[in-house]
Amino acid sequence: MIYPILAYGDPVLRKLARNITKENTPNLSTLIADMYETMYNANGIGLAAPQIGLDIRLFIVDGSDIGNEETGGEVMTDFKKVFINPQILQEEGEKWSFEEGCLSIPNVRENVNRHNTLKIKYIDENWVEHEETYSGMKARIIQHEYDHIQGILFTDHLSPLKKRLLKGKLTNISKGIVSDLQYRMRFPLKK
Fold it and tell me: Is this structure's pTM higher than 0.70?
């Protein structure tokens, strides 16, 4: 099932998501499959549960289709993962800038500074706990999706000037005024 993606301005995108358990998420495998289908339909590389209206600590990533030229030679073919109840334990390394976009904020891309390396603890789709370290593009994708379950959007990382320059575009997105939309969205305000 392909879910509509919530647009900028929806209150769920600003909520701190809650942890889930095996008991309170009986259809988790179906939800994960639907999230992947939704993400692929929108040509995304990551999707967090709040983006489909669920305030739970779950996100998925798949960087397999990112080309080596986009990652500076970093191999991404094995980077398809499910993160349940993740917790970033540490972020380190020099921050670096890279242009990011977001399925909830269509047609807006801006440079965002993020730490190069992170250590994260999470549970996978089989309820197995992991503690892993990622760097480069993998760390950036995780940080972007992790922000979603914290109620943070990539535009929150921009300078006050950039935010002012984007204000009109963001207001239009929240009203459903978006051109060239390639996937289903749910907008918080009517046109």
Answer: yes
